[in-house]
Write a structure and sequence with these properties.
Chain A: InterPro entries: AAA+_ATPase (IPR003593), ABC_SmlMolc_Importer (IPR050093), ABC_transporter-like_ATP-bd (IPR003439), ABC_transporter-like_CS (IPR017871), P-loop_NTPase (IPR027417). Chain A: One of its GO terms (molecular function) is ATP hydrolysis activity. Chain A: Pfam families: ABC_tran. Chain A: Keywords: ATP-binding, Nucleotide-binding, Transport. The complex is a heterodimer of chains A (about 325) and B (about 500). Chain A is α+β, with helices and mostly antiparallel strands and about 325 residues long. Chain A folds into two domains: about 10-250, P-loop containing nucleotide triphosphate hydrolases (Rossmann fold, 3-Layer(aba) Sandwich); about 255-330, Beta Barrel (OB fold (Dihydrolipoamide Acetyltransferase, E2P)), CATH 2.40.50. In chain A, about 25% of the residues lie in helices and about 30% in strands. In chain A, the strands form four sheets. Chain A has a six-stranded mixed beta sheet with strand order 6-7-8-3-9-10, with helices on both faces. In chain A, strands 13-17-14-15-16 form a five-stranded antiparallel beta sheet, with no helix packed on it. The longest helix of chain A has 18 residues, at about 185-200. The radius of gyration of chain A is 23 Å and the shape is globular. Chain B has about 500 residues and is mostly helical. In chain B, helix 17 (about 370-395) packs across helix 19 (about 410-440). The radius of gyration of chain B is 23 Å and the shape is globular. Classes of the chains: A alpha+beta (about 325), B mainly alpha (about 500). The interface between A and B is medium-sized, with 40 and 30 residues.
Chain lengths: ~325, ~500
């Protein structure tokens, strides 16, 4: 079933406080407001303990919120039981039913007697075909995996089955709690593409919690950055990467170097700095180390008058002299606090 | 802005007024149920006893005798409890649950006679050995359940960090095993404290214990004050034990269900030696003299067997389902230890005293002796047994699976039918068979509650044993032992069967 195109997700003033040790308490959500357009892929990033998972569980109804309102389309959902909410969650740990096969896990909703607020119906002949197609799209050959027991799956395979289960007869919004974290790099990239394809085809909105900037930058239409239970920033990921509103957001999305000029404050993305031959740049530097980090080479340089080394990323390793210069464009300097 | 958004929504929302209150206040509902249960099973009988004993006039010599008996009972029971825990651990790693269940059904009087037949002089040692042999199968079953859920990931991580066997045992294995060890030892302790059979037959009257004192005070000497003091002391000792057990069960870590790990050679040798000790009584049942052909008494006992099976089936079904339901529900309440105390409290009272008190309470409530009163009397301890077993085994069902089912839209009934029941099937089977075995073999309670003509097979066998019809007792004791074995084998086959 394709989701309705106009089911925006709106959150107003979500609050959640957990009782801590003794009389203390921990604020997990401190008034979160969100306005998410239907069918978009929204990534949520933040340090550990910033409230990302609590936000997801609160929206799913699995964690009672202290205050706030949640709307999906015209329907207020915070008053609904978790089972009746038009959302589906993919948990960090796959949480598959061990007594059911892969296919039975994927089509679990067909075993439920009632129809939910999504108006989905009981199992029909097309159900198995849809489940097989989903498994195939997520890289699991149904001929091999459909009848397989959950115990006979690897961690990555389990996570893909959990994704297929969430996508089967999908509701308007999918809540993803780091679903790609258990996967190896090539599988991760393949699954990112598959997720993007499925989202487009089905028109499902996805609210995706992740620690990986690469996932967020590759998948998200909108990136929400959280810190200490609040939304720090919300915008297109490329915009937040290039012009982050604050230092915390900037650091979450990628490496930063201080401007290698003792006379000037600010930061630069490592790929915005250039290593040039001596006497051709703006400051003198000395190469300390270089290492290959996948598609880029990361260089560590010392600049006279600066305690911290400067990071520079470039497509090719610097093969010139250790004594070199650094150059940059003033437009690339990020004035962050 | 809504207050406590989603809290009510975690329940099922659109239910009736009573149902809505139950969903919103699960702790209070459970609290009320536990209080009513405690009142019916413990407080009402105890109240009747205290009423009969009022105004508690005890002579100095009586007080001294009670203190001496209690101290002796405490000491001997503590020794039996510690040894049962240690030997039970060896046994749990060596012997399969089917064998343990069969051994569980060998009645204490049969064990006591077998111990004396070994050549032990009647006295404290023979009584303690009898007690240990009697409670060991249960201790090993409980410990075996826990051994199946060892936190392997933690153990591997500790080994990887360089922790040796001792450090791993201290930091991981023991904290994991502790709840089951506590259950096993406390069970043995309470059984010893309230025992009459072992100390009467194997003790030979040389060791007068609280169980014997209560029995004599109530039945032979009409001294309810003496009995009331002892019963109150036993309950006062048992309630903290029950609270400790429940607290440990609550804190028990979740883990996956696996086979009991292969034990080292020395553990296997030690475990088999303990098994050899346990096999004395059943071997005596098999190799001793058996009657030839079927007589009129056999037909009478066959009728009692069918009735006993019916009573045991009803008690096992009720106790297992209620114990399981309470074990599940108590995971949702803020102070589950108090629910556990209410459910486990009946274990504090020796079975025969429990039977006698229930007879009094039943009469006061207009319930005549018969099968119904026997079922009610057996339900108290049986529910405790079902609750502990379910509690030990349902901790392996992770909360994340239930959250996943809720998230996929499953209602309470669907979660029960599609997730809880299939995953908890092993727990239900074990709890059911364990309770069935215990009820079938229980003679002390129905001796008071079954009434004239309403005996169970276990009661009849005790009467025949006293009358010296040992051959007949052997034959029918074997039948009793075979029932849970067959039940386990059938349950195993059922557990493997899956509808296509």
């Amino acid at each position: 079933m394709s989701a309705e195109p106009s089911v925006n997700l709106r959150a107003r003033g979500l609050h959640k406080r957990f009782a801590g040790a003794g009389r203390g308490s921990v604020v997990a959500l401190a008034g979160v407001d969100l306005e998410l357009e239907a069918g978009r892929h929204v990534c949520v990033m933040g340090h550990s303990g910033s409230g990302k998972t609590t936000l997801l569980r609160g929206i799913a109804g699995l964690e009672p919120l202290d205050a706030g309102e949640l709307w999906i389309g015209d329907q207020r959902v915070d008053t609904l039981a978790a089972a009746a909410r038009p959302t589906r969650t993919v948990f960090q740990a796959p949480a598959l039913f061990p007594h059911l096969s892969v296919l039975e896990n994927v089509t679990f909703v067909d075993r439920l007697g009632r129809t939910s607020s999504l108006g989905r119906s009981r199992a029909d002949a097309g159900g198995v075909t849809e489940a097989h197609a989903l498994l195939e799209r997520l890289g699991l050959d149904p001929a091999v995996f459909a009848a397989r027991n959950i115990d006979a799956l690897s961690g990555g395979e389990r996570q893909r089955v959990a994704l297929a289960r969430a996508l089967y007869r999908a509701p308007p919004w999918l809540l993803l709690d780091e679903p790609l974290s258990a996967l190896d790099r090539p599988r991760r990239a393949a699954l990112r593409r598959a997720l993007a394809g499925i989202r487009k085809a089905k028109g499902i909105g996805m609210l995706h919690v992740t620690h990986h900037a690469a996932d967020a930058l590759a998948l998200a239409d909108t990136l929400v950055v959280m810190s200490r239970g609040r939304v720090l920033a919300s915008a297109a990921p490329e915009q937040l990467y290039a012009r982050p509103p604050d230092l915390e957001t900037a650091r979450l999305l990628g490496e930063l170097s201080g401007v290698p000029d003792p006379a000037r404050a600010g930061f630069l993305r490592p790929e915005r700095l250039r290593i040039v031959a001596g006497e051709q740049g703006r400051v003198r530097a000395r190469l300390l180390a270089r290492s290959c980090v996948g598609p880029l080479w990361e260089h560590e340089l010392a600049v006279e008058g600066l305690a911290a080394p400067i990071l520079v990323a470039r497509a090719l390793a610097w093969e010139g002299s250790e004594a070199c210069d650094l150059d940059w464009d003033d437009d690339d300097v990020l004035e962050l606090t | 802005m809504s207050r406590r958004v989603g809290e009510r929504a975690r329940g099922e929302g659109r239910v009736g007024w009573g149902g809505a209150w139950a969903v919103a206040q699960p702790g209070r509902v459970l609290g009320v149920i536990a209080f009513v249960w405690l009142t019916l099973v413990v407080l009402l009988p105890l109240g009747l006893l205290v009423d009969a004993a009022w105004p508690f006039e005890l002579r100095g010599v009586e007080r001294a005798a009670i203190a001496r008996v209690l101290l002796r009972g405490l000491g001997l029971s503590a020794i039996a409890a510690i040894l049962s825990g240690a030997l039970g651990l060896l046994l749990a790693q060596t012997v399969t649950p089917v064998v343990l269940l069969a051994l569980l059904l060998v009645s204490r009087s049969v064990v006591a006679h077998a111990v004396l037949a070994l050549g032990l002089t009647p006295g404290s040692l023979a009584a303690v050995v009898t007690l240990i042999i009697d409670v060991l199968p249960f201790a090993a079953l409980v410990l075996g359940l826990r051994l199946r859920t060892r936190p392997l990931a933690l153990i591997e991580a500790a080994r990887d960090l360089g922790a040796g066997p001792l450090a791993r045992a201290r930091e991981i294995e023991w904290p994991h095993l502790r709840p089951a060890m506590l259950v096993a030892c406390t069970w043995a302790f309470l059984q010893g404290l309230g025992d009459e059979l072992a100390f009467e037959i194997a003790g030979g009257g040389h060791a007068y214990t609280p169980g014997l004192l209560i029995r004599d005070a109530l039945i032979r000497e009409q001294a309810p004050a003496r009995a009331a003091v002892c019963v109150v002391v036993l309950i006062a000792l048992a309630l903290p034990c029950a609270w400790l057990i429940t607290r440990e069960l609550t804190a028990a870590q979740r883990s996956d269900w696996r086979e009991v790990p292969a034990a080292p050679a020395w553990v296997r040798v030690a475990g088999h030696s303990v098994l050899a000790l346990l096999l004395i009584a059943p071997v005596a049942l098999v190799v001793g003299e058996h009657p030839v052909g079927l007589g009129p008494t056999d037909r009478l006992l066959a009728g009692l067997f069918v009735r006993s099976l019916g009573i045991a089936g009803v008690v096992a079904a009720l106790a297992t389902s209620a114990g399981f339901g309470l074990a599940l529900a108590s995971r949702q309440v803020p102070h589950p230890a108090w629910i556990g105390v209410a459910v486990l409290a009946p274990l504090a009272i020796p079975p025969s005293i429990h039977g006698l008190l229930t007879l009094g309470a039943g009469t006061a409530l207009g319930l005549a002796p018969g099968p119904t009163l026997t079922v009610v009397a057996m339900l108290g301890p049986a529910l405790a047994l079902g609750f502990v077993t379910a509690r030990l085994m349902t901790v392996v069902i992770p909360r994340a699976l239930i959250d996943a089912a809720i998230d996929l839209g499953a209602s309470v009934g669907e979660r029960l039918r599609l997730v809880w029941l299939p995953l908890a099937r092993p727990a239900l089977i074990v709890a059911g068979v364990l309770t069935l075995a215990w009820v079938l073999g229980q003679a002390a309670i129905p001796a008071f509650t079954s009434g004239p003509g309403g005996d169970t097979l276990a009661v009849a066998l005790t009467i025949h044993a006293r009358a010296g019809s040992i051959a007949l007792v052997r034959r029918w004791s074997l039948v009793l032992v075979l029932v849970p074995v067959l039940a386990v084998l059938t349950a195993r086959a059922l557990a493997r069967w899956r509808p296509q």
